[in-house]
């Protein structure tokens, strides 16, 4: 193990972790990986600080082919939020490596994933000099969320680009709320409601997010998604969708949903509600 240390989760500690990894890798036999390692650890740590809301542990070690970075926290039920890459057309963009959170890790790492056990989780990435810059789906093990109960529903013909763009808009808003951009028009009650809805809808939202990423990594344009869901879950998804539409117009924000995203989310809500009432699954109708 090259480096193992715990941090308090403050912005200062996130910067300290990034600098520690940069200096460590730069002085190692894997110095050619310094930039990629600094980018990856920066995003893994930022994800922990923004979404786990607490301390984290960083470990860096050598592998036969490169380095492995692990960031762990005590919030196994809080899945890492992936800000996927999309280009201006809304399609997955596999070459850009800036400004997309864990999407950076998904492109730079040869392998990356999430391991959860006993109420904690580890988000990890392995980087090698021979790694090709392409989008990779995460490897997920362990009980990231409590076993679902409810009715099995199928969402057929889901557009990969639309699903990834929807996820990116959600994460844009999360960051803007956390940075206080909406403080003048959104009170503490509304802010807490937003984060509560994020947590309540996380199993359904993030299952779709990871399925879309896996489909994008395979070059697919559509994917099917099977979920176990109940009325409370779809109510939280619907309430979050409404919140996502009403929040951005309150201030000058670049995170407002497009009409296509509004229709896409409404179709999900309507399709799940119909299946919970006994209807047969129908594919996404397109825009």
Characterization of this structure:
This protein is α+β, with helices and mostly antiparallel strands. The chain folds into two domains: 3-141, Heat Shock Protein 90 (2-Layer Sandwich), CATH 3.30.565.10; 151-276. It contains seven helices and eight strands; from the N terminus they run E-H-H-E-E-H-E-E-E-E-H-H-E-H-H. It has helices spanning 11-26, 34-52, 102-108, 160-178, 188-217, 231-246, 259-276; strands at 3-7, 56-62, 67-73, 111-117, 120-127, 139-141, 151-159, 222-229. The strands form two sheets. It has a six-stranded mixed sheet with strand order 1-2-3-5-4-6. Strands 7-8 form a two-stranded antiparallel ribbon. The longest helix has 30 residues, at 188-217. Mean pLDDT is 77; it is low at 81-100.
Main β sheet profile: 6 strands, mixed
Low-pLDDT stretches are 81-100
CATH architecture of the largest domain: 2-Layer Sandwich
CATH class of the largest domain: Alpha Beta
CATH topology label of the largest domain: Heat Shock Protein 90
Q: What's the overall geometry? A: globular
Structural class: alpha+beta
Largest sheet, spatial ordering of strands: 1-2-3-5-4-6
Along the chain, the helix and strand elements come as EHHEEHEEEEHHEHH
Structural domain tally = 2
Determine the oligomeric state from the structure. single chain
- Number of strand segments: 8
Helix content: 40-55%
